[in-house]
Specification:
This protein is of the alpha+beta class and 631 residues long. The chain has 16 helices and 19 strands.
């Protein structure tokens, strides 16, 4: 999985059939239209920043016809006059002078940066940006411009990624629970990552503030999309496909719900280490030490599992379809699991205390339970959770994780606090409460814009506030930076942040649309919000200093295949992405796949939350409602 440590890659198995299914380092979107397209995989790679004196970096996958469209120009040559030409289908349609950006030296000293904004161009077609500075010339990758761009271009393969990731090994029909003789049926679900056949609702519970929502988040996004956005999926011929995958996820959640009322957090075998028993267990640290922390708290995937099952029950009622289990079973599971966690949740938290992740995941569970049942008790509890979440917000709009001063930052779901508040708005009828939530959303979005724009930032990369870890706990000064700090409470987990970026993009769109006064800069947002939302997706889709589209099978250049540590590469999967430089406690500098190969999982490995959040963001950026109003 994404946290696969260097010492635990021995379980990755390579077969001839697998090798044939893998694509090459230079992989074009056209070649990737066939998921089985292949070339001989590379097994040793090191990726450095491009050294060309003039580069034009652009989203390589798709840009919205009525949304922001921007290229970033990097120049390492001598000063000189510069200009650009925008080409549509090979023909020039716009010319202008390059606009210099603020000096920026943190990643590559000696470079200057320029901006090419062609947002006002709204004709569909294939676009490129040609740039000239002095004697230097450069041409961007091509990018299609169309309506509902990212969803229409990638939606089918994003969905297919989940089916390719299904786990169907019959061994999981009867696995032991750690430190017991009990055996349970945990068959189904999805493998977590390219190099990891484990299955996770979450992990990193021992670190308390890092739990990512994994399989349960995927199950919710799929069920939500199939139900609330059925017209969108149907318009692209994907409705049956998304329903199938949503029910596959709901069936797995039913199987991992214990009779006592808690979900099993992980199915784990130390990343395929030979001789290690696969079982239901918790685990800790880079060594993958088994623990008894296998009962999922709200923050360890339990909250989103409840939300997913409740939404799947609505989908079953709407369509008359279901998986192995029916809609009534899904809803009964959701209600039973919530009743259990409402009583026992702190006992399942490593430190015995709830934090912000419990608040926003429980809030999502309650919103969906209310949507599915209409029962006022779920609205009452949702009000309490929303109040808890808002109480964690600081004056500038940022959140704290706990009852103290530890800043909230998250490598996978930094946008989920705002998304949960936006979802809660859809069930809250009282105007006073609604206004408090709207104020909180406005403050949170203002904070994200402010911290991102507080320094020179040519790519508009979402920055974050954090503390470094001391003796396993966050302490000391509150710092700011681009990437996740390497010295954090997990002890080792500082991989790339593709999921985080898509979650923030979705939060900006969904939260921004909830606020009064819609803009016309794209996605129904004001200029600054639309630009922020676009920049986060653009980074993952190729507009970054490496010129790499992390979405495999789309764009001019994709991450390399590194079987030793990152395993399989599926079309529609998204790699972890770019990080701060190794060796930097604060995550300063920049790095992508520098090696050795045993560590390349940090950058190259595909992880299920990345595709989950990209699909959700792509849905959010299309026309129509994007929150939980459909019920």
């Amino acid at each position: 999985m994404t946290c696969l440590p260097q010492s635990r890659k021995t379980g990755v198995r390579v077969t001839a059939a697998l090798a044939l299914a893998l694509s090459s380092w230079l992989h074009t979107a056209g070649a990737a239209s066939d998921p089985e397209s292949a070339a001989t995989p590379k097994t040793s790679v090191s990726v450095s920043l491009p050294t060309e004196p003039l580069l034009v970096q652009i989203n390589q996958v798709a840009l919205e016809r009525r949304g922001p469209k921007r290229a970033v120009v990097e120049y390492a040559g001598k000063a000189g006059e510069g200009g650009y030409t925008v080409l549509r289908d090979g023909k020039p349609i716009k010319r202008g002078e390059l606009r210099p950006l603020q000096p920026f030296t943190e990643w590559t000293p000696g470079k200057r940066y320029f901006d090419v904004d062609f947002s006002e161009v709204q004709e569909p077609g294939k676009y490129q940006v040609e740039v000239r500075i002095g004697e230097q010339r450069a041409l961007s990758s091509p990018v299609p411009v169309r309506d509902d761009a990212v969803f229409a271009t990638t939606g089918a393969q994003l969905l297919a990624y989940f089916k390719r990731s299904r786990h169907t090994d019959e061994t999981d029909r009867k696995l032991r629970i750690f430190q017991t003789s009990r055996k349970v049926d945990v068959w189904g679900g999805w493998q977590d990552a390219g190099g990891d056949k484990g299955k996770y609702l979450s992990h990193l519970g021992y670190a308390n503030h890092f739990n990512p929502q994994q399989a349960s988040m995927a199950a919710w996004v799929l069920a939500y999309g199939a139900h609330a956005r059925k017209d969108l999926f149907a318009a692209h011929g994907l409705q049956a496909q998304v329903e199938d995958e949503a029910f596959w996820g709901a069936d797995y959640l039913h199987r991992i719900l214990d009779a006592e009322g808690y979900f099993y957090t992980t199915v784990f075998d130390q990343w395929g280490t030979p001789g290690v028993e696969r079982m239901v267990t918790g685990y800790e640290g880079a060594a993958g030490t088994f623990t008894t922390l296998y009962r999922s708290a709200f923050r360890a995937g339990g909250g989103m599992a409840i939300a997913a099952l409740a939404r799947a029950s609505m989908l079953a009622e709407q369509t008359g379809r279901h998986g192995v289990f029916d809609g009534a079973r899904y809803l009964a599971d959701a209600e039973r699991a919530y009743a259990h966690l409402r009583r026992f949740n702190p006992q399942y938290c490593a430190d015995g205390k709830e934090n912000i992740i419990d608040d926003y995941t429980a809030l999502m569970a309650l919103v969906e339970l209310h949507n599915a049942t209409g029962q006022s008790r779920y609205l009452d509890d949702a009000r309490e959770r929303a109040a808890n979440l808002i109480a964690r917000q600081q004056a500038d709009g940022g959140f704290v994780s706990d009852g103290g001063r530890r800043p909230y930052y998250h490598a996978a779901e930094a946008g989920l606090p705002v998304i949960s508040l936006a979802a809660y708005l859809d069930i809250e009828p009282e105007q006073g409460r609604r206004q408090r939530v709207l104020d909180a959303i406005a403050s949170a979005l203002k904070y994200e814009l402010a911290i991102t724009n507080a320094v020179a930032n040519p790519y508009g990369y979402a920055r974050q506030r954090f503390q470094l870890a001391q003796d396993g706990k966050a302490a000391g000064d509150v710092l700011e930076g681009f990437f996740i700090p390497h010295r954090n409470e997990t002890g080792y987990w500082w991989q790339g942040e593709s999921a985080r970026l898509a979650s923030l993009s979705a939060a900006m769109v969904i939260g921004g649309r909830k606020l009064a006064g819609h803009g016309a800069a794209g996605y129904g947002l004001p200029v600054d919000q639309a630009a922020y939302a676009q920049s986060q997706l653009d980074w993952t889709l190729g507009r970054n200093p490496y010129g790499i589209s992390m979405l495999y099978g789309f764009g001019k250049k994709n991450p390399p295949t590194v079987l030793e540590s990152a395993g399989e590469m599926f079309v529609g999967g998204i790699s972890n992405g770019i990080t701060g430089a190794p060796g930097s406690d604060t995550g300063a500098g920049i790095s992508f796949a520098p090696g050795p190969d045993s560590e390349q999982w940090r950058w190259v490995e595909q992880w299920i939350p990345h595709t989950t959040w990209m699909l959700f963001a792509a849905m959010a950026m299309t026309t129509g409602e994007t929150t939980s109003e459909a019920r």
